[in-house]
Amino acid sequence: MATVMGQRPVDLLVLNYGGNERGDGLTEAAYFDYMDVALQRLRAGRNPACLIIGPSDHGMRQRGKIVSDANIVKMVGWQRKWAAKVGCAFWDSRAFMGGDGSMGRWVKQGMGWGDYSHFTGKGEQAMGLGFYRTLLKGLRDYQRRR
User: What percent of the residues of the chain are helix, what percent strand, and what percent coil, each to the nearest 5?
Assistant: First the structure.
């Protein structure tokens, strides 16, 4: 990884972890260590800007309702805290979706699959466009302040 990253000029690292890791049973400290190692490897001795994309909402059935997976809620908090600790920006994709129980609503709108974890093409487009618009707004805000 260091060799590959060392051959490329890197201005921004974007990391997106969460959904698949939600059942790993890590503690916050172990998760921070895991993320520290990943960031160190990707930076390869340089210090480019970084952006963490938090995990999207994942739903599960509970008493006939779709509720958010508690592990995702916990990981969003950890990632937000870790990003602040290491000086990375954080984009909360779960908040963009609408917060608690949002994957259930996205499934009803045809933007998520019935596994309450994955997006349909329509959902992928909505997420991508939301992220893109957030980046552009950040750029415009930055340019106005200069």
Answer: 50, 15, 35
Contact predicate 108/78, CB 8 Å: no
Nearest to 68 by CA among 94, 107, 93: 94
**Phi, psi angles (nearest 5°) of residue 132:** -60, -45
Express each pLDDT in 75-114 by its tens digit: 999 999 999 999 999 999 999 999 999 999 999 999 999 9
DSSP 5-24: HHTS--SEEEE---TTTTTS
Query: Is the distance from CB of 56 to CB of 103 less than 8 angstroms?
Result: yes
Contact, 93 vs 127, CB < 8 A? yes
Handedness of CA 23, 58, 127, 84 (dihedral sign): negative
> Is the backbone of residue 38 left (phi > 0), alpha (psi -120 to 50) or beta?
alpha
Q: What is the distance between the alpha carbons of residues 30 and 90, in angstroms, rounded to a whole number?
A: 20
> What is the distance between the alpha carbons of residues 108 and 102, in angstroms, rounded to a whole number?
10
pTM: 0.87
